[in-house]
Design brief:
The chain has 171 residues and is of the alpha+beta class. Helix content is 33%, strand content 29%. A five-stranded antiparallel sheet has the order 2-1-5-4-3, with helices on both faces. The protein is elongated and about 70 Å long. The relative contact order is 0.11.
Length: 171
């Protein structure tokens, strides 16, 4: 899900335009978003507020694009992760941009998959660190390069873990 938007850069950060996709993102009809202050301020997770303000502020000052991922909580309590990419546009006579134009995407599924992968990697690293042997991954090329070796390599091959990476397999 995603939406295209245009928001004024001065308070109250009124939404000038938002596409229909905003309804799925924010859980409210577009008519309740369009022409009103940006819904992000009311639903962004407190942990992400400062980073969001800084990213948008830098974009307004530099007229450079920005990209930020943040979490929101909808009125029904459901949480989502959004990826916003925008750019400050149409500078006035003083050079200050009048609008932020951008795209917002629901990246909740991708965020959850990244978290699951990180948890699996931590579990694997814990298991490998406590395994009395060697767990390894070899790149199947003519060199049979070691891409990963567990800490047990020190006991069996008398190498530090980092020394084995990129080396030809001894097996």
């Amino acid at each position: 899900d995603g939406a295209i938007y245009r928001v004024h850069t001065r308070p109250p950060f009124k939404v000038e335009y938002v596409s229909q996709g905003a309804e799925l993102l924010f859980g409210k009809p577009v008519q309740e978003i369009d022409g009103k202050p940006s819904p992000i301020a009311e639903c962004i997770h407190p942990r992400d507020r400062l980073a969001y303000r800084k990213a948008v502020g830098r974009a307004r000052r530099s007229l450079q694009p920005y990209s930020i991922e943040f979490q929101i909580t909808l009125p029904d309590g459901k949480t989502k992760w959004l990826l916003e990419r925008g750019c400050a546009t149409e500078p006035d006579a003083s050079g200050f941009p009048q609008f932020i134009d951008g795209l917002i995407f629901d990246v909740t599924e991708q965020h959850e998959l990244r978290e699951q992968l990180a948890a699996r990697e931590r579990r694997f690293a814990d298991m490998a660190a406590n395994f009395d042997g060697i767990i390894f991954r070899v790149r199947l090329n003519d060199m049979l390069e070691m891409e990963y070796v567990s800490p047990g390599v020190g006991k069996l091959w008398e190498l530090r873990q980092g020394e084995a990476i990129g080396q030809r397999s001894k097996t």
